[in-house]
Design a protein that fits this description.
single chain; alpha+beta; FAD/NAD(P)-binding domain; D-Amino Acid Oxidase, Chain A, domain 2; eight-stranded mixed beta sheet; globular; binds flavin-adenine dinucleotide; binds 3,4-dihydroxybenzoic acid; FAD/NAD-bd_sf
Amino acid sequence: MRPTSPAPATTTVGIVGGGPAGLLLARLLHRCGIDSVVLESRDRAYVEHRQRAGVLEQGTVDTLRACGAGERLDRYGLVHHGIRLRYDGRSHRIDLPALTGGRSVVVYAQTEVVKDLIGLQLAGGGPLVFGARALAVTGADTARPVIHYAHEGREHTLTCDYVIGCDGFHGVTRDAVPTGARRLYERAYPYSWLGVLADVPPSCDELVYAHSERGFALFSMRSPTVSRLYLQVPNGTDPADWPDERIWEELDARSATDGPWELARGPITAKSVLPMRSVVTEPLRYGRVLLAGDAAHIVPPAGAKGLNLAVSDVTELARAFAHLKETGSGELLDGWSDACLRRVWRAEHFSYFMTTTLHTAPGQSTFDTRLQLAQLDRIASSPHAAAELAENYTGVPQAPVPVPVASPS
Ligand code: FAD
Ligand code: DHB
C-alpha cells in the first residue's frame, strides 16, 4: 500500500518554509483564490517561539491587517513614533512622523506575527504541513517543478506550477538554481549580537540604539513588562560566558548618558548569539522557482529590515500571481525579481549603514570612531540627515495588497 501523503501531490504554488514569508504568501494567495501548500520542516511550537524581529514598518502592518492578521496586532502592538540614538554621553530622539510625513513603526514580535498567520492558515487556508523537510527541488526549468520532502520518516513529492523558496538562509530551494545562473553578493561582519529577553519593563518607552567604544547595545521590548536587549559581542561568543550580572553591567556601561537614565534590571529568561551578515542572491527567479525573504537576502539586524523585506517580497509576488490568474499575463511575474531587488539593495545599504555607524569593530582606529561620532552628530543636528535615517527606518511605501476574490475565508 502506498504511504498516505500528508499533503496533496499537486498544487499551483508549492511553498517551502513556514516562516513569515511562506505563511503570508499562502494567506495572500488563498485570498486571491490561488491554491498553495506550505511545507515547514520544524514543528508548530518551534516556529511559534523562535525569537527574532520586533519592528514592523507601516506597510507591513497594513499588509497584515488587510489579510486578516490585524486583530492581535492592533491590540498588543506598540506604536512607536520615535527612536533614540545614544552616543558620546548624549541622547538624541529621531521623531519619525515629523521627519517622514507621518510614518511610524509598530513593535510587535515576529513570534506573534507567525502565530497569527498560522492560526489563519489552519482555520481556513490551504494545507500547512509541519515536520515536512524539503530535501530538494527539481525541474526549475520545466513547466512542473517538484519538491521532494521527508515527513515522519517517509519521502514524498509535491508537483507544482511554481515553487517559492521561503526556507530562510539555510534552506535548500536556492540549490535548485544552477550555480552558473545565480550570483551571490556577501559581506561578513567581525561581530555578533547577544540577544536576551528579560522580565522587566523597558527602561525607555522607545527603542534606544547605543554607540559605545565598548560595543553597540540595543534596548527594545516585547511588551510593557518584557524587555528585549542586545549587546555586540565577538564572533564565536558562547552565551554561557555571559552570566546575567555581566550582561546588566555591560548594558549599563554602554548606555551611560549625561541625561536622566536608569536601566531597570530583572530576571533574564533567554539568551542567544546571532551572527550577522549581508547577502543578496540575484536573480530571485529561475524558471518556475522563485526565492523570497531570507532565502534570497539577509541583512544585519540593526536596521530592522529583514522581516519587512520578506513581507514586501511576498506581497508583490502575490500581486503578480493574481495578475497572471486574472489576465493570463506573466508581465508582473517577469518583472518581480528586478522590482524586489531595488528595494532589497536599498535596505542592504541602510542596514550596512546602521551597523557600521553604531558598532565598534575589533581593533577599530580612533579615526574611525571619530568618523562615526561625526556622522551621529550630523544626524542629530541636521533635519535632512535625520530624515534620511527616519525614511529608511520606517520604510519606503510597499505595494498594495492584491484584491481578494469575491468571498475569501
Ligand atoms: P525564516 O523566518 O528564516 O523562515 C524560514 C522557514 O523555513 C523556517 O520556519 C524554517 O524552519 C523553514 N525551513 C528551512 N529549511 C527548510 C526545508 N528544507 N524544508 C522546509 N522548511 C524549511 N527583521 C525585521 O524586519 N525587523 C527586526 O526588528 C528584525 N530583528 C531581528 C532580530 C534578530 C535577532 C534576528 C535574528 C533577525 C531579525 N530580523 C528582523 C530578521 C527577520 O527575523 C527575518 O528576516 C525573517 O525571519 C525572514 O523571514 P523568512 O520567512 O524569509 O525566513
Ligand atoms: C529588534 C531587533 C532589531 O534588529 C532592531 O533593529 C530593533 C528591534 C527587536 O528584536 O525588538
